[in-house]
Amino acid sequence: MAVSLPLIVDEMRTGDIAAVHGIERLSFSAPWPAYAFEQELASNRLARYRVARAGGQVVAFAGLWLMADEAHITTFAVHPSWRRQGVAHRLMVSLLELSRQIGAQRMTLEVRVSNQPAQALYRRFGFVTVGRRPRYYTDDGEDALIMTTPELAGPSMQALLLAEHGPNDVADTGGGAA
Ligand SMILES: CC(C)(COP(=O)(O)OP(=O)(O)OC[C@H]1O[C@@H](n2cnc3c(N)ncnc32)[C@H](O)[C@@H]1OP(=O)(O)O)[C@@H](O)C(=O)NCCC(=O)NCCS
């Protein structure tokens, strides 16, 4: 089921952090503290953060770091009440476009081995598992899978973006300022 309200993907601002942190705490067993988001927005020049807003309310967020030629997804979460409605899908289209705009050759991330919903989302966007980091998560010692896309400029990712970015898809106001 798709979100019925218009969904806008936008740059994360300092004023969004309280809402973002609320979603973070509902989504992760070891949430980032709110000041981590403040520091990221204020002083990490390699970081880009996006939020999805529905009716003005922040319902999801995601971030990435541009590391050499890779866009590394650092965080990604949708408010539990807004899941399974295509919100992550829209945010991921936006992150892929952003990654191309800032010159990344590919995208990469770590995900818990038990996190099947997130792995399914990432597979849908071309990510494949390329490795495993044993005991990566310090709160419970769970392993991480390393997932990465093919070349963003290559034919498979271009075809995927075209197919996923439907004509009535997301309004994205944040892309140009990357
Ligand atoms: C993973 C997460 C971001 C998905 O958000 P969402 O808005 O519910 O996802 P969407 O509705 O846009 O679904 C897009 C695709 O993701 C996959 N997916 C999402 N949720 C899924 C689930 N519960 N089970 C299986 N596949 C799932 C499907 O491929 C889906 O496509 P489909 O609906 O056509 O089957 C969300 O569950 C979440 O915030 N989880 C907690 C935080 C987290 O794990 N973040 C990732 C850290 S690496």
Kindly describe this structure.
This protein has helices at about 15-25, 35-45, 85-100, 115-125, 155-165; strands at about 5-10, 45-55, 55-65, 70-80, 105-110, 130-135, 145-150, 170. A hairpin with a 2-residue loop joins strand 2 and strand 3 (about 55-65). The protein is α+β, with helices and mostly antiparallel strands and about 180 residues long. The chain has an eight-stranded mixed beta sheet. Helices cover about 30% and strands about 30% of the residues. It contains five helices and eight strands; from the N terminus they run E-H-H-E-E-E-H-E-H-E-E-H-E. The structure holds coenzyme A. Coenzyme A (COA) binds near residues 84, 85, 115 and 121.
Kindly list the characteristics that best describe this protein.
single chain, 178 residues, alpha+beta, Aminopeptidase, eight-stranded mixed beta sheet, 5 helices, 31% helix, globular, binds coenzyme A
